[in-house]
Amino acid sequence: MKYNNIPFFLVGALLLAPAGASAQEETTDSVEVVNVAYRQQAAGDILGGVSYINMEELAKKNYTTYSLEDMQGYVGGWNGNSLWGMDGDNAGYMVLVDGVPRDANNVLPSEISQITFLKGAQAVVLYGTKAAKGAILITTKRGKNDGIRVQVTGNTGWQVAKAYPEYLGAAEYMTLYNEALANDGKPALYTQQDIYNHASGVNPYRYTDINYFSKDYLKKAYNRSEFTAEISGGAKRAHFYTNVNYYRNGDFLNFGEAKNNYTDRFNVRGNVDVEINSFITAYANANATFYNGRSAMGDFWSATSTMRPNFPQGAAPLIPLNLIDPNAAAAWDLIGTSSNIIDGEYFLGGTQANSTNAIAAGYVGGKSKYTSRQFQFDAGVNVDLAKVTKGLSFKAMMAVDYATTYNTSFNNNYAVYVPTWSNYGGKEVIVGLTKQNVEQHSGVQNISGSTDNQTIAFNAHLDYDRTFAEKHHVNAMALISSYQRTLSATYHRNGSAHLGVMAGYDYDKRYYLNFSGAEVHSARLPEGNRNKFSPSVSVGWRLGNEKFIKDKDGLVNDLMLSAAYSIVNEDIDLVMGDKEYYLYEGLWSTAYGYGWNDGFSKQYTYSTQGSNPSLSYIQRKEWSVNMRGQFFHKILTADLSFFHNQMQGYLIEAPSSFPSHLKTGWPDGSFMPVVNNNARKHVGMDFSLRAQKKFRKVEAALGFSGTFYEATWTKYDEVVNEPYQSRVGHDVDEAYGYRALGLFKDDAEIASAPVQNLGTQVKPGDIRYEDVNKDGVVDNKDQVWLGKRLGYYGTPLTMGVNFTLKYKGFTFFALGTAGFGGYGYKNGSYYWVQGDGKYSAVVRDRWTPATAATATYPRLSSASNSNNFCNSDFWLYKTNRFDLTKVQLTYDFREDMFKRVIKGLSVYASGHGLLTLSPERKHMEMNVGSAPQSRFYTVGVKATF
User: Fold this and answer.
1) Residue 606: Cβ within 10 Å count
2) Who contacts 530 (Cβ-Cβ below 8 Å, separation ≥6)?
């Protein structure tokens, strides 16, 4: 029976089946070499916990601007935030660029050859303590071709804002603020005439109604342009690769100095591979990045969420000069001393209480420039020791990176002018001005925020790789590795040093056994506990090479089953607040206070931390299983993993097992030690599916990936008021708060309900909560775990789908990502509107006596309201969403069109962040107090010579 003609729609149906898996994007060939810990490995021999992306192939159809952009759309186990949900409060996955710990944002997609995601503990154990929560290996391109090859890429596009927050206009705000005062039994602040004046626009410079998201301050879109030149080549003994890149981003702001805001980056990356002789090769990699960001003074985006539309009252930020009465000589004389006349037409308005504002600062407050310089260098040598014994080799690498950042700025003091208004003949004019602040342009350049960081890394290893009798394959490694990072203003260097060992055996590419381990060391632990061994064992059965599978006429082209058990010791979570070292020491401090004699200050000494010589590593104990295969003549590729791990020994600093009198509030002293105690369990699965088929001149491919995980506390040191408040058995990211029962309708309902003792006297329109323990009072004893996950480390279920269609020279590519099962709190200033804060559009659905039956928002109040604005399921929302993340159309011209002058030419157009499908789309696409999310539309051209 033949399967090479299986209809593609059946493959699509298989892809949508819940129990499927597939290989990663562009990685279906089992002979492809994959970069793993300190070595390369054939893709077909990997024993689970690893996914990878061929970035050079992906870049042919998908232009991206960030190295890890939307990788959850291709890779199972990566949810955009963590690997297998293993991120944490102090540190998460480790990123290595060409084997050196580096930042993912300092290497661009055009520079990358392959990205490997090491998810399983067995895949990261050789990296020691710092990669205990997974690692991402980014491998840059290298020169491979003889002769010279030049490829240039240029593109330009526009970032278009998705949405802005919606706030009330001045008149509506003033009306509702009066309502809030009335709800609190207070008199109105604004008269009806005040409200009318602001609503009518009779004089917008006195009766302001400022829309911070109008065209007066913002552009509809801004440009991003990028140019890349790649040069590679060489001959028999040496090859090289060079990437030169420059990009520049604009900004949405469209006024004053802020018009000139930008960020840009210039980067040169290069490497050389040299064959020194028949058994020694060497390489060198270098990278230099120059990053700049220019911005006006003032935090405009923050101000948009706090500055009310009628604020400041009586004076707009900019006021026309022609509103000054020609006869107001004193006012003209005063304004004549100002050098801050905007466009020759406006002066800066303000009030005595508000003598600065973000708009004025954006015009005349000065400017700042952020500068970052990064220089990275690494070199290595590979020695073939076959003359010593066949299969033996030696590899060593040394890296030194420097990174500096600093800010330069010109900080100007500016004056605002408080107008005195009068009405002459029905026209409002300014008859007087009062100056606030001193106007000063010193011309002095200020330098701040200076940092200097350094990374030094080294590793060396003996490798053995040999096959005996054509069936017995043995490989082994003995490793020494270390790195350290020196950070500005940080005394202790952050680093890692460990020894590693790996031994593997496979029989006839069918039966696999692998052992890996690392002897780790951590200076964060007491002497005697600083060294520990992390072991890992993996087994595999490659059924695809069994005769009874091979003879099935293409039904199964490859099939690998594997399992692993590992214990990884980590110190990245050995942190308490800002303390990383000496957590095991007994610490003492001194202070001054009253002595036995009244009125006399005495110095005293007190304990701040007890000693614990038994402090130890946090351990990741994990078992996992994996199935990977290719089916139907390689039409379908699948990869499925299941994992179960325990993270044991998280730190606590005030153990409940110690008497409470050993810790004091004043002074902040304690005899209690830091101890290992808390534990949590991670359980989940990931999967990837990929199907590809050629129909005459049409090639189609469809990929589907997903990650699901749960993380629950199995042990937690706590003292709770009620048993149901214990964290044990609940999700690490589970929402905690009150159960809301709606809004109080009237005083009678309040009188009959349990007393709500949450800091605010409740009134009709306030949120009513459940008295969980039935004691007649609603207080903190009634807070419960709400059974909703907040997705701290990614949504519980993350999915991705990608589709490629090729016809002649055209390539259509689409990518979608989705997240399900998560919840969030609507608890920012946009939703928790209280006091005299800015009113958003959500308050239109507020409770009033007339809307008591339909209201979805509590009553307004001019004071803070701790009853309404606290975490409860009233404010929870589902974060379920599907995003059409990317669509790109590429056309590749035929090579024979250019008579060998150009070896290849492609043009493309793409859109990123195009569509979000979710009941909460408006909320999810809205940023409050920061620059908006945007859609990116771009066109580009790529030419190869």
Assistant:
1) 15
2) 521, 522, 523
φ, ψ for residue 723, nearest 5 deg:
-55, -35
Q: Is 884 helix (H, G, I), strand (E, B) or coil?
A: strand
pLDDT of residue 31: 64
pLDDT surpasses 90 at 8: no
Beta bridge partners of 910: 888, 938
Give how far Cα 306 sits from Cα of 348, 527, 835, Å. Answer: 20, 52, 12
> In this predicted model, what pLDDT tens digit does every residue of 121-178 receive, in sequence order?
999 999 999 999 999 999 999 998 888 999 999 999 999 999 999 999 999 999 999 9
C-beta of residue 367 within 8 angstroms of C-beta of residue 333: no
Q: Is 208 left (phi over 0), alpha (psi -120 to 50) or beta?
A: beta
Q: How far apart are CA 76 and CA 643, in angstroms?
A: 13
Helix (H, G, I), strand (E, B) or coil at 217: coil
Contact call for residues 228 and 243 (beta carbons, < 8 A): yes
Q: Are 684 and 792 in contact (CB under 8 A)?
A: no
Q: Cα–Cα distance between 740 and 758 in angstroms, integer?
A: 13
**Helix, strand or coil, per DSSP, at residue 303:** helix
* Buried-state track 382-404, b at ≥16 Cβ within 10 A, e below 16: bbbeeeeeebbbbbebebebebe
> How many residues are given for the chain?
945
Task: Give me the helices (H) in 28-185, please.
Answer: 55-58, 121-124, 170-183
CB 357 within 8 A of CB 316: no
pTM over 0.90, yes/no: yes
User: Contact 629/641 with Cβ under 8 angstroms?
Assistant: no
